[in-house]
Amino acid sequence: MMRMSSFVQRLGIECPLVQAPMAGATTPELVAAVSNAGGLGSLGAGYTEPQAILDQAARIRALTDRPFALNLFVLPDEVAPDPAAVTRARARLDALMEREGLSVRTSLPARWAPRFSEQFAALCEARPAVASFAFDLLAPTQMQELKRRGIYVIGTATTAAEARAWAERGADAVCVQGAEAGGHRGGFLHAGETPLIGLFALIPLAASAVAASGRDIPVIASGGIMDGAGMLAAEVLGAAASQLGTAFLACPESSAAEAWKHDLAAAEDHRVATIRSFSGRAARGLRNRYVEAMEGAVDELPAYPVLNALTAPLRRAAAAAGRADLLSEWCGQAAARVRPQPAAELVARLMHEYRLARRALAPH
Ligand SMILES: Cc1cc2nc3c(=O)[nH]c(=O)nc-3n(C[C@H](O)[C@H](O)[C@H](O)COP(=O)(O)O)c2cc1C
């Protein structure tokens, strides 16, 4: 309870609830609706060019005067893939699109991804109350720059060691991403591995690791939480707040393709898997026709962000054609529990459930 109130009070929000940043699915309308309802809305800007980050932050500000978060993927500015691997991947993807009757083909983009240093400069200029990061640690100078501007920093960790690394780097809070979590794995320390620690194990492990660093910062729990009882469970284990992604994906304010939203409710838990073949980086989503078609080729495909850029035309065409079976349908393990409804209603419902669960546990 102490931990929860310190996070909520420090940020000036009302609920121990963070709507997860979801690059490609979060919109200014979703972020503002959650922040207006008392949670912390977050915009996933990892794929967004610097000017668009500024424009979207301005749009959020036009819709709410409450705190919100901007989120980026920490990546090197320069990417130099093996040209032969790119050619092979393009041939494979083009053949698949032809077989599936899609008329688009891959192309070489001007850049494989937006430059992180330029996105970071735009984030600093936009000056949100909160900035959150995944895929790597910030450099110490970048951390200082955010502190100088009074921006609250949340780092993403998938293991206890990563949680400690963020605490030592100066983060104000660490978001722990359990194995259940939808979307890309945010970790960075364990080269060649994809740690998949369940949230029940990870919250207490990360809380101890953070405490051992001498900086007792809040731990935010993410992965598979779909209701208020789950939020309370995370708090009982030591979390200060819960970060929910998939639960908000089916909201009308989310920009996930309609066919993807539709598939969430029917997602069988055993079909929600860790997938590399869309982006070159492990991410949790639905095993569909594309994933199965690429199964034998995964080890030959280029790494993130190269493969992500190469599959973009396919994913756009699939969304336009309503072909969810060829889309990156990111979602957490509990996707079938989505409750499609406006984001403000979902926040109110989550908080109602959370309070009921508290009362049920401690009736007097
Ligand atoms: C569609 C989707 C996109 C995501 N994109 C991001 C992102 O851009 N940045 C980030 O830090 N986390 C991202 N995540 C991970 C979330 O922050 C969070 O860990 C996850 O949603 C929690 O699990 P849940 O989906 O079961 O609630 C994404 C998750 C999903 C489902």
UniProtKB/TrEMBL annotation:
Give a single Pfam family match. NMO
Coiled coil ranges (UniProt) are none
Q: Which cofactor does it need?
A: FMN
Q: Name one GO molecular function term.
A: monooxygenase activity
Keywords from the named record? Detoxification, Flavoprotein, FMN, Monooxygenase, Oxidoreductase
Reactions catalysed: 3 propionate 3-nitronate + 3 O2 + H2O = 3 3-oxopropanoate + 2 nitrate + nitrite + H2O2 + 3 H(+)
Matches recorded under InterPro entries: Aldolase_TIM, NMO
Q: Which family does it belong to?
A: Belongs to the nitronate monooxygenase family. NMO class I subfamily.
Q: What is this protein called?
A: Propionate 3-nitronate monooxygenase
Tell me the classification of the organism that encodes this protein: Bacteria, Pseudomonadati, Pseudomonadota, Gammaproteobacteria, Lysobacterales
